Inverse folding.
């Protein structure tokens, strides 16, 4: 585990600690969750604005059950989101599945064409793309 130091005011530190406690988390875990969600939102926003179709990810289900995407498309979307291009190469498979299916949910919400592979994986997993099922989605997909 690597330590990250954040230089902030005492007041903000107290606020952050209280928010983390209310969510039943340690401050470090809460900060990492917030940063992860921020990067995901940045990625999805850039992807949606890019005009690149979800199908360009060339989503595949591997034999071991994990999802695989076209790395060139992922790198391009990362670049557009101002995220290091290999960020998701270095991320866990759970994080990759989370970002891909969160992007897919937004894609469909904005009227994008359904992706046959994504739909098959979601149906097989019994997962519905609703915000209230986010944790269920993570567990079923990974």
């Amino acid at each position: 585990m690597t330590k990250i130091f954040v230089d902030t005011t005492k007041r903000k530190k107290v606020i952050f600690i209280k928010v983390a406690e209310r969510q039943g988390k340690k401050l470090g875990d809460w900060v990492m969750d917030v940063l992860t969600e921020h990067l995901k939102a940045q990625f999805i926003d850039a992807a949606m604005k890019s005009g690149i179709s979800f199908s360009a990810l060339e989503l595949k289900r591997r034999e071991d059950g994990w999802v695989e995407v076209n790395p060139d498309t992922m790198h391009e979307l990362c670049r557009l989101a101002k995220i290091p291009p290999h960020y998701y190469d270095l991320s866990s498979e759970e994080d990759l599945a989370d970002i891909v299916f969160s992007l897919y949910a937004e894609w469909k919400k904005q009227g994008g064409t359904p992706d046959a592979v994504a739909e098959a994986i979601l149906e097989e997993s019994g997962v519905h793309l609703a915000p209230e099922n986010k944790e269920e989605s993570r567990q079923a997909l990974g």
Observations:
- The CA atoms of residues 16 and 22 lie 10 Å apart.
